[in-house]
Design goal:
Shape: globular
Strand content: 35-45%
Number of strands: 6
Strand order of the largest sheet: 1-2-3-4
Largest sheet: 4 strands, antiparallel
Radius of gyration: 14 Å
CATH topology: Arylsulfatase, C-terminal domain
CATH class: Alpha Beta
Helix content: 10-25%
CATH architecture: 2-Layer Sandwich
Number of helices: 1
């Protein structure tokens, strides 16, 4: 089970907010997780990454960690969204994002 330990609404561009989660089974906290949404689209989780410039000078992002299988990442991100939604309900953060 994943727990959201902090969430701050941002509502800037496609970013709804930034969260920190805790995974008790692993004993790890991950900070800087973005909850994102496009205009009228579905929400998704943006995992922490580092910005860099490639050889052509284009802005790119390198994830701090990644999953080998896409379905593992999808399941992980779904649990994060559920944890954030629970946190928002429990902390009356102005309604669901």
């Amino acid at each position: 089970m994943i727990e959201c330990v902090r969430y701050k609404g941002v509502n800037k561009g496609s970013c709804l907010g930034i969260a920190s989660i805790f995974i008790p089974a692993w004993g790890i906290q991950i900070n800087g997780i973005g909850l994102m949404k496009t205009n009228g689209g579905a929400r998704w989780v943006n995992l922490p990454s580092k910005e860099y410039l490639n050889k052509e000078g284009e802005k790119k992002y390198m994830p701090y960690f990644k999953f080998r299988e896409k379905y593992h990442q999808e399941a992980f991100c779904m649990q994060i969204k559920d944890a954030i939604d629970f946190w928002i309900r429990e902390h009356d953060n102005g309604g669901k994002q």
